[in-house]
Amino acid sequence: MMTHRRARFPRTPLFRLLAINLAIGVSLAVMLVGGLLALDPGGLRHLIFADRSPGTALGLLLFGFVVTFGSTAMGTAIMAAGRPPPNNDGPRGGKGRPVPQEIARAARS
Asked: In angstroms, rounded to a whole number, what is the distance separating the alpha carbons of residues 76 and 17?
């Protein structure tokens, strides 16, 4: 019975939402670390690869970016989950500004 429940867990919409957004955050983190290594600002690439264990430095740098971008993407998805889809039928929110005729009419009465 427990294996049946585990098989359904990845099909849960919230889990899928979080997993997809975590993957987006991880891919952004990998691209950013790759860009930092390619651009070499301040000799960062030289500092990392001149060390005795560059894998540790790269792992820590990548871990920091993965935590930052992964949690940001997941948090943004959770915050936007309750919003209705945008409606492009016209202006949104309130009645807008009153036209001068309405202001004059309201002042007279």
From this structure: 11
**What interhelical angle do 13-39 and 54-80 show, nearest 10?**
140
Q: Specify the pTM.
A: 0.68
Closest to 77 in 3D by CA, of 30, 19, 9: 19
Where are the domains positioned within the chain? 21-82
Query: In which residue are the tokens 């001068």 written?
Result: 100
Smallest CA-to-CA distance from 62 within 35, 99, 89 is with 35
- The span from the CA of 21 to the CA of 16, in Å, is 8
pLDDT tens, residue by residue, 28-69: 999 999 999 999 999 999 999 999 999 999 999 999 999 999
> Which 8-state DSSP code applies to residue 9?
G
Radius of gyration of the chain (CA): 25
Which tokens sit at 21?
A: 């957004």
